[in-house]
Write a structure and sequence with these properties.
The chain is an alpha+beta fold and 483 residues long. The protein has 24 helices and 14 strands. The structure holds cytidine-5'-triphosphate (CTP).
């Protein structure tokens, strides 16, 4: 089945170069996959996949020769890649067996275009544009990819059990595409038979590398409405395999007529709120802020208690949660660097700004918060504001109003005291020189006293004030300046 497509999708000169080179080599080349899908969605895509009836590596080599550019060959995967004017073009020979990276099975090439399309993940990703002179730009769509794209349907070309067993990551990809392609106007849905198949095969997640799983989770997290993806992960049982700690947030317990929030749906609401706040602030999505939102209440089940007088409590869940972050990151093979520390810090501090809303907002409490959050204070405020969820809209409105007061106070205190990037005005070298002493615990003690005095507002944040304060404290310790 082929339809001639509207002009414009293949305007870039790279397509005519590939077309000509393929004809010189006597092979047929097609644009396939994400590029074709995104053309119809009107989403620009700089990654082009070319499938060749013949050798993809040989065609890439020929084109690289014409363009005087380098080609990277991945022999194990039977693919080759070159870059041309900021566009990345990947070539692969048409396969009878599944198309996938990291394959352990041998790659079976020499298939026709249709063989190849049949072994791809979804109908919307299996459409191709011909690059042959005789029907240049014709859409080859044997499984109704266009129909599914306009109806918002994720469907596998083959029986889903077969498609998913070729590469179980496709189960996560189904969720990712459904989440990513959904818009406020149209929700993409995974067809029921594919959903059933995912439920049956969820345990196959076990064989996938954590890196590939996290790549998909990150893509879901970065969408405008990540909750949809996590609800799908949950309803297909994938969540238990990819992030079991999150599954544990599910459920509501009731004692003496008192119930607590369902922490799973609350977490997803917070995640969506963060995504919306980023859009509203004109910011790019911050992956790590989204991880912090996803994990902010992760230790609630472990800290849950029922107190007959006050009901459900989750005391210390922010501290325990922050302590769990390295373990969770490690189990997912995520970076154990400053990104992890950032998530850990946000989880640990996520209750602090709201505590200021409900308690009295003193300058010293604000200074301490600024000191601990440092440059991440704005992100913390986004997370904390997103965390205000309740079924009672008046309560939300009241808390949000008070929250604005805290924000204003933060700006005021920061303008006055510049605590955000606090550097102790007193250095160890200065103390050692002044008193003619070597490194010792006393220096740390004096510096700590200066810091506390500034944060408590006993002295202002300046060298003069800090120096006078420190000299007095040193005198009490029996130190006198050498000069
Ligand atoms: N593909 C597949 N099975 C996989 C991975 C990829 O069938 N497990 C096929 C699909 O046809 C897909 C194409 O390879 O369209 C390219 O894969 P990829 O670059 O991962 O995804 P895109 O569809 O290009 O989408 P995006 O760039 O948004 O990830």
């Amino acid at each position: 089945m082929s339809t001639t497509i509207t002009k414009g999708f293949l305007d870039d000169e790279i397509f005519s170069i590939i077309s000509k080179a393929a004809s010189e080599m006597g092979v047929k080349a097609f644009v396939i996959g994400g590029y074709v899908r995104d053309c119809f969605l009107g989403r620009p895509n700089k990654d082009i996949d070319i499938v060749v009836q013949g050798s993809g590596i040989a065609l890439a080599g020929h084109i690289a020769g014409i363009l005087h550019t380098n080609v990277s060959v991945f022999k194990n995967f039977g693919t080759a890649m070159l870059r041309y004017k900021g566009i990345e073009v990947e070539f692969v020979g048409a396969r009878k067996e599944s198309y996938r990276r990291n394959s352990r099975k041998p790659i079976v090439e020499d298939g026709t275009l249709e063989d190849d399309q049949l072994r791809r993940d979804f109908t919307i990703n299996a459409m191709a544009f011909s690059l042959q002179k005789e029907d240049y730009g014709a859409l080859v769509d044997p499984f109704g990819g266009i129909r599914d794209l306009s109806a918002g349907i994720i469907r596998t070309p083959l029986d889903p059990d077969t498609t998913f067993s070729d590469d179980p990551l496709r189960m996560l990809r189904a969720v990712r595409f459904a989440t990513k392609l959904s818009t406020p106007e149209q929700e993409f849905k995974i067809v029921p038979e594919a959903l059933d198949s995912i439920r049956r095969n969820a345990s196959r997640m076990e064989i996938l590398s954590k890196e590939r799983i996290v790549e998909e989770l990150n893509k879901i997290l970065l969408t405008p409405k990540p909750s949809y993806g996590f609800e799908l992960l949950d309803s297909t049982n994938l969540l238990e395999w990819v992030l079991p700690q999150l599954s544990k947030l599910k459920g509501v317990e009731m004692i003496d007529g008192k119930a607590h929030k369902d922490n799973f749906s609350h977490t997803l609401q917070v995640l969506d709120n963060v995504a919306a706040a980023e859009v509203q602030a004109g910011r790019e999505p911050n992956l790590w802020l989204r991880w912090a939102a996803l994990l902010h209440d992760i230790a609630k089940p472990a800290t849950k208690r029922f107190d007959p007088a006050i009901g459900w409590t989750f005391y210390g869940h922010e501290i325990v949660g922050a302590r769990w972050i390295p373990k969770i990151f490690q189990s997912l093979k995520m970076p154990l660097n400053e990104k992890m520390k950032y998530v850990q810090k946000l989880v640990e501090l996520h209750l602090r700004p709201i505590a200021l809303v409900t308690e009295e907002v003193t300058d010293s409490a604000v200074r301490r918060l600024l000191f601990e959050a440092g440059d991440d204070i704005d992100d913390l405020m986004i997370l904390c504001s997103a965390d205000i969820t309740s079924k009672n809209p008046q309560k939300v409105a009241r808390l949000k109003d008070n929250f604005e007061l805290v924000k204003a106070k933060l700006v005021e205190v920061e303008a006055k005291d510049a605590i955000r990037n606090f550097k102790n005005p007193i250095t160890g070298d200065y103390v050692m020189e002044l008193y003619g002493i070597g490194p010792c615990n006393l220096i740390g003690k004096l510096k700590e006293q200066v810091k506390e005095a500034i944060l408590d507002g006993v002295i202002e944040n300046s060298f003069e004030a800090a120096d006078a304060f420190m000299r007095e404290a040193a005198l009490k310790e029996g130190l006198t300046p050498v000069k």
